Amino acid sequence: MVEPVNLACGHEFSKKAISKWLSKNESCPICRKKATISQIRPAINTAKSIMRFKRKLAKKGKEWVNERIAMDFSSETGN
Description:
CATH topology: Herpes Virus-1
Oligomer: single chain
CATH architecture: 2-Layer Sandwich
Number of helices: 2
Helix content: 40-55%
Order of helices and strands: EEHEH
Number of domains: 1
Distance between the termini: 29 Å
CATH superfamily: Zinc/RING finger domain, C3HC4 (zinc finger)
Strand content: 5-15%
Largest sheet: 3 strands, antiparallel
Strand order of the largest sheet: 2-1-3
Radius of gyration: 16 Å
Number of strands: 3
């Protein structure tokens, strides 16, 4: 996600996507609560998580990503 942002309702989107949505609509696309472009705020925790992931990816590479995907998949399926 590039430039993660929050609306007042707490839902997160990319800034580009939600700006486009709000230019035509006046509500959150998920919960339909009233929303405006002026209510968009940076999603700082999400942005930090993305940066940490990118740093780890740069250090550990594709093998690390594949291990993470396998761990996530096994936790979802109970294996």
